[in-house]
From TrEMBL:
The protein's name: Murein biosynthesis integral membrane protein MurJ
InterPro entries: Lipid_II_flippase_MurJ/MviN, MurJ
Chain coiled-coil ranges: none
Biased composition (Low complexity): 1-13
Transmembrane portions of the chain: 41-64, 76-95, 115-138, 150-170, 182-202, 222-248, 269-291, 320-339, 360-380, 400-426, 433-454, 460-484, 496-518, 538-558
Phylogenetic lineage: Bacteria, Bacillati, Actinomycetota, Actinomycetes, Glycomycetales
Keywords, in A-Z order: Cell membrane, Cell shape, Membrane, Peptidoglycan synthesis, Transmembrane, Transmembrane helix
GO cellular component, one term: plasma membrane
Main localization of the protein described in the UniProt heading: membrane
Transferase in keyword set: no
Chain positions covered by the region annotation Disordered: 1-28
Gene Ontology MF: a single term: lipid-linked peptidoglycan transporter activity
Compartmental location: Cell membrane
């Protein structure tokens, strides 16, 4: 069946003249993605650095799990109140307003920012007052008091998360991607400073318990500790928003509050938001279930007699953040570059062009993500030890994080491809389809969580939670692919599949090579004798370099198309 014959009936009219040809657009997407990827790389690395520093300061025991749980609160409510609405509705509307409005969409942005500030402020007040109830729902009794106190300090960040998202949308709709990618680095540096101060003020002189852990009792945690952790985390988000101001001014945008909300497409936003909120609410139920089960599995009162470290919310979060760092550096950069173009193509009913953008984005993201996944699988032990075993984050905790990381390596690609395909629906401002096909996906995910908790030993529950995520990502990928093919026609998935076979083969050869060398590494390090931090870092760097080199070499031999495109782009950049 041809692509044209699969177009919706309302796209039968002759489309306007197309923009730049696919090859030119492909090169532009590669170039834009690499440019944003640089900012995203530094942002994600420093973001992960803040997680490592905080983990080194507070460990993966009671305080660490309580802080991780409280951290989820503002992010969850942000996603529920605005996050999904922004991704699926607001950004496409920004692009359309900038494209079609005489003032370039400025008035639309002023009104929307004003409305969002009011909604977010009200939401932050309500959920902050409800912090004790939320804490009971997500944590174990021994954690409730700590989680509640931290939440009082961290939930107000909801307002600033939302404002950052919308202001980033203003800049992205004008294809100014730099600041939203770079200013989160400042937030990360603030929290890194908080973790460092916490370590030297509170952790360095703390006395470990019989298991070698600190802050594993609520009585060990003081009000000063909570103020530093919670208040410092919120301060980082506030500073991040303020740092967008220079970029907005350079883009010619100055926010002036406007209360004439009737000029906004409120009915459109309301109708579309209803489905998005259903989808996002279901997702947040899954998040709550994951954190609750992680906390239950690692409850100190239940695991004290096991004699082994049982990972909980902190290990789950750290391994999940490794996945999100890789996804953010690669796939989010690709999505950000493609989203305005997919939205314009969808707005003009140019379905083959939208499909071409999506197919090219998946091919490029897969080419870059496959070797990262291979490294997580093959080198999970040295990576876990090198990255996480700092301060009071013990070797056992680091090795448990490495085990979870091996699962992340397998589920990374299905997650990123499923997200890319979901954004193709968002480009069409179609939230109904996303909500409908993801409800069974979320049900499968939660069912997997319950099975993992019921059937697996406590120390393997976190691995089971991540594996359940992976199954749900794969189901989401297949469902969204089927619906998109009916909607926009052929997606070029045969070309994607052929490229994926080559890259997976190359990554498998590279991963086996690196794993074989790890097996030959000095036994004291391979067995977890981890006092030699330099050896850990050397093993991760050296073996990772071998893996990357073998992957590139095999890709060249197999003539992977994306390898050639990347070479061309890099050479062009170097000639400038």
């Amino acid at each position: 069946m041809s692509e044209s014959s699969a177009r919706p009936s309302n796209g039968s009219a002759a489309p306007p003249p197309p923009g730049p040809g696919p090859s030119r657009q492909g090169k532009s997407v590669v170039s834009s993605s690499l440019l944003m990827g640089a900012g995203s790389l530094v942002s994600r690395v420093t973001g992960f650095g803040r997680t490592v520093v905080i983990s080194a300061a507070i460990g993966a025991g009671l305080l660490g799990n309580s802080y991780t749980t409280a951290q989820y609160f503002p992010q969850m409510i942000y996603e529920l109140v605005l996050g999904g609405v922004f991704a699926s509705i607001i950004l496409p509307l920004f692009v359309k307003a900038h494209k079609n409005d005489p003032d370039g969409g400025d008035a639309f942005a002023h009104r929307l920012l004003t409305l969002a500030a009011l909604v977010l402020g009200a939401a932050a007040l309500v959920v902050t007052l409800a912090a004790p109830l939320i804490a009971v729902g997500m944590s174990e009794p021994v954690q409730v008091d700590l989680v509640t106190k931290l939440s009082y300090l961290m939930l107000p960040a909801l307002v600033f998360y939302g404002l950052f998202a919308i202001l980033s949308g203003v800049l992205n709709s004008r294809e100014r991607f730099g600041a939203p990618m770079w200013v989160p680095i400042i937030n990360n540096l603030v929290v890194i400073t908080v973790g460092t101060v916490f370590y030297f003020v509170f952790t360095r002189d703390a006395v470990p318990d019989a298991n070698g852990e600190v802050f594993n009792s609520a009585s060990d945690v003081t009000t000063g500790m909570l103020l530093l952790l919670g208040g410092g985390t919120t301060a980082g988000v506030v500073i991040q928003v303020l740092c967008l101001t220079p970029a907005l001014r350079r883009a010619g945008f100055r926010w002036r509050p406007r209360f004439d909300f009737s000029a906004l497409p409120l009915r459109t936003i309301r109708n579309l938001a209803a489905w998005t909120l259903l989808f996002v609410a279901a997702n947040q139920i899954a998040v709550m279930a994951a954190i609750k089960i992680a906390n239950a599995a690692s409850d100190p009162e239940r695991t004290a007699d096991l004699g082994v470290f049982v990972p909980g919310a902190t290990v789950y979060n750290n391994s999940y953040l490794m996945m999100m760092m890789a996804h953010g550096i690669v796939a989010v950069s690709v999505i950000t570059a493609l989203m305005p173009r997919m939205t314009r193509a969808a707005d003009d009913k140019r379905w083959p062009e939208l499909a071409e953008h999506l197919s090219g984005g998946i091919r490029m993201a897969s080419f870059l993500l496959v070797p990262i996944g291979a490294a997580f699988v093959a080198l999970h032990e040295p990576i876990g030890l090198a990255i996480f075993q700092w301060g009071v984050y013990t070797p056992q905790q680091a090795l448990a994080t490495g085990q979870a990381l091996a699962v992340v390596g397998v589920i990374l690609l299905p997650f990123s491809i499923s997200q890319l395909q979901i954004y193709a629906f968002y480009a069409q401002t179609d939230t109904r389809a996303v909500a409908i096909f993801n409800l069974p996906v979320i049900a499968i995910r939660i069912g997997g969580y319950l099975l993992a908790f019921a059937l697996l030993p406590a120390q393997w529950v976190i691995v089971g939670l991540l594996a359940s995520n992976g199954v749900s990502y794969l189901v989401s990928l297949l469902l969204s692919m089927s619906l998109l093919r009916k909607r926009v026609g052929l997606l070029g998935m045969r070309k994607v599949a052929m490229g994926l076979i080559r890259t997976v083969l190359a990554a498998t050869i590279a991963g086996l090579s690196a794993w074989g060398l790890w097996m030959l590494w000095p036994a004291d390090l391979a067995d977890g004798g981890t006092s030699d931090k330099l050896g850990q870092l050397l093993a991760s760097f050296a073996l990772g370099t071998v893996l990357l080199g073998v992957y590139i070499a095999v890709c060249l031999v197999l003539r992977v198309t994306e390898m050639t495109s990347l070479q061309t782009t890099v050479r062009a950049k170097l000639r400038r």
